Every structure is written in structure tokens, then in C-alpha cells.
Amino acid sequence: MGEKTGRGRRGPLAGFLVAAVVAAGCAVGGVDGGDPGPDGPQEPRRSAAAPDDSGSDGPGADGTTSVAEFKRDMNGAVGTAQEYWTAQFKASGERFRPIRRVVAYQREGELACGGQPLPRNNAVYCSAGDFIAYDVNWSVAAFRQIGDAFLFYLLGHEYAHGVQVRLGIRYNFTIQQELQADCMAGAYLGDSVRAKTLTLDDGDLDELRDGLLAVGDDPDQPWFAEGSHGTAEQRTESFFRGYERSLEACDLG
User: Fold this and answer.
1) Is 124 left (phi over 0), alpha (psi -120 to 50) or beta?
2) Are 11 and 160 in contact (CB under 8 A)?
């Protein structure tokens, strides 16, 4: 997946931003370093999964393998997401506050979210600290197994949680929050491709489908359980609904 300079298509946030209030408990996590947010610690949740880091180190579908490529693509994904959401908010007459930082970690407990140490094989958005954290070894393994397009999805999903906080979105069940974030990640990527901010390489859509199949919940997990994200089929449907129809498909208001 290639990055170009430009703006993503602007989406329909007008009207919803009027009620945008950042509230504890409406998204994942708290603050790193064990410093609880203003409303106390919040439990970190795993926002998107990928294959574990015990898999093959061979190239993905597009031949991506190197750490330098990983860093380039991760930086590109962050920049493109920030540009996209800045344009969406601007179109609604609001100023977007980018997520404070995106940080990698390597060891269990190296970072904390609301006083809870982050485990290995994880990627989260922490609302009170307003940061995205990801296990870099696990993420590089996913990059090598699936390909670079998966990084853009992973970052897009986590960034969507930050946008949910900025919009004050609340849900009764985790699965609703997570499937909406998948849809928003799809809109971010689809709109960016249509605007030529990103270009799709051969195999990128297959990589996205493969990645979404890998992140589905176990079929035996109840949909209403805390931490449920949706089956592979639900997550794939949500992502591609956003990818094809933009933010209008994501029930933002």
C-alpha cells in the first residue's frame, strides 16, 4: 500500500460534533505509567488482534519483510489517519485534535494503561492518556505474515477509537464499539484510496481480508461478553461496508 500527498474524502460528521464530549468509559484504556485519568483507572482492552509472533517470518503477499519497511508504513499509516480525520472534522466546522502519540513497546508491563500493564501481542488505544500503543515484535510478525495493508487497518482501527472518544460515542456492549471502529477504519482507507492519498498495490485487498479473518472472536465467545469484537465475518462485513460506502455506513449520527 503506497502513501501519497493529498486529502482524504470528507465525511458526514456535521451535527454529531455538537455533542462531542470526552467521557471516561466510552473508549478503551486510561493513561500510561500508572497515572489514572481524571475519573480513575480504566481497564485496557485489546482493540485489534493479529497472528501471534510465533508464526513465519517469511514475506507477506506483497514481499514486505524489513523493519525499515515496517517503520515507513507505520509512519505513513499514522500520518494518513491524522490527515483524514483532520479533514473530516474541518468539513464539519470543527478542529481535530490528533491523538497525542503512537508508541511501540517490546516487553509485557513496559507500558501501562490506567495502571494496568499492557501484555504482549496487543495493540490498544488508551483514552485518558490519548495514545495508541502496540507490541512492535508482534506487529512486525503480522506485517511479515500478512503484508503492509494490515498495518494501515490496525492503525486505522485504533485511531477510530480515539475519534469515538472525541465524538463522545457510548455503547452498552464492546462489540458495538469495535465493529463501528472496523467500519471507520474501512472508511478511512477507502476514502483515502478514492482521493488518491493512498494507492492499492496488487494483493492489498486480499491482505485486508486475511487480516480481518485473523482478528475474529472465537465462535464460542458470546457477543455480549466484555471485550467481544465480533466474528471474522462480522468484522469483515463492517470493514468493507465502511470501505465501500464511507462514514455514512458507520452510524455516527
Assistant:
1) beta
2) no
Q: Residue 181, exposed/middle/buried by CB under 10 A (0-12, 13-18, 19+)?
A: buried
pTM for the predicted model, two decimal places: 0.79
**Structural domain spans, the chain:** 23-250
- Identify residue 220 by its one-letter amino acid code: D
114 in Cβ contact with 37 (< 8 Å):
yes
Lookup: cell for 163: 475519534
CA distance 39 to 36: 7
Could you tell me how far CA 185 lies from the centroid of its own chain? 6
Ordered per-residue pLDDT tens for the chain, 253 residues: 766 433 333 344 533 333 222 222 223 422 222 232 333 333 333 444 444 443 444 444 455 578 999 999 999 999 999 999 999 999 999 999 999 999 999 999 899 999 999 989 989 999 979 999 999 999 999 999 999 999 999 999 999 999 999 999 989 899 999 999 999 999 999 999 999 999 988 899 999 999 898 888 888 898 888 888 999 999 999 999 999 999 999 999 7
